[in-house]
Amino acid sequence: MRNYIIKRIAQSVLILFCVMFIIYALIRSLPSSFAETMAMQLAQAPGAKPYKEWLAQLNAAYGLDMDIIPGFFTWLSKAIVGNFGDSWKWNVPAVQKFQEVIGLSVIMGGISFVLSLIIAVPLGVLAATKQYSRADYVITAVALVGISLPTFFFATLLKLVFSVKLGWFDLYGLVGRDYAQLDAMGQLLDKANHLVLPIVTLVIVSIGGYMRYTRTNMLEVLNADYIRTARAKGLSERTVIYKHAFRNTLIPLVTIIGGSLPSLFSGALITETLFSIPGIGYISYQSMVAGDIPFTMFYLSFMAVLTLASNLLTDILYGVVDPRVRIS
């Protein structure tokens, strides 16, 4: 297993290098020059340097005055040591801005991820064990609704009902109007109150896929020969389902769970934007719209690292849940 992990890490490094080069090449190939736009804005400030000097400085700082390959290695040499440059929109280092907002996205993503699994997996198992029953039809209908309807629809519906009609939550933002007058506990509860609807939105749009995936794989396992053998041996139905069938259902379920891990750190771009929650998804969207090349390059590189790490973790988890795929 150790040699396998080392081999996969080496492959991931090579893939990451290729992905980062593609990201850099795409940014360089955009039809409009964000460096020119930024230089023009900086030159308009009182007492600022001329436009041409700003443009030359920005191009030199990010290797934009070179060809793509030399420019990429110039950027990469700085990125390896954590120097992704200063964010053009937020006027702070890109890494510093990321550190300021990542915690909020991790909290939102982590809570919604755990709640989704707690709700979806048991319901998927129940639907499979009660196939064609009323419970199965209800769970399947809920799952299809969650899969079919887009995030912005659920978010808008929740805001209409619970913010506009009932007035239980604010429409947007992370803090309320009287946040500064509250004590420490009150401020914590105020932030928690503003995160309720975004987290509910993330849970609703996530549980449908998990439920359908769990149900489908559970039905496949329940029809296997070894499950019929276990029942013929006189084992209780609970033992057959949760000790034999569910363990094998975890094998394909690990894939979809592992693929969802990057969302814990990448932020929920649509949800955070709709609720104006300043997480990494919302900040990265604002940076991309503003043409913030340093922050955009850092965010896309971070997502590439996160995706490769989740794939490696998924492969390792296979060996945990299924002894047949363990590598000596």
Give an account of the 3D structure.
Helix 2 (34-43) crosses helix 3. The chain is globular and about 85 Å long. It is an all-alpha fold and 328 residues long. The termini are close together. It contains 14 helices and no strands. The longest helix has 39 residues, at 184-222. Helices cover 76% and strands 0% of the residues.
Short structural summary:
The protein has 328 residues and is mainly α. It has 14 helices and no strands.
Features:
328 residues; mainly alpha; 76% helix
Structural class estimated from helices and strands: mainly alpha
Low-confidence region ranges = none
For the biggest sheet, the summary is: none
SS strand fraction: under 5%
How confident is the prediction overall: mean pLDDT? 82
Present the secondary structure layout:
Layout: H1 2-28, H2 34-43, H3 51-61, H4 68-79, H5 94-129, H6 134-148, H7 151-165, H8 184-222, H9 225-232, H10 237-260, H11 262-266, H12 269-275, H13 280-289, H14 293-321
Helix pairs in contact: 1-14, 2-3, 5-6, 5-8, 6-8, 7-8, 7-12, 8-10, 10-14, 12-13
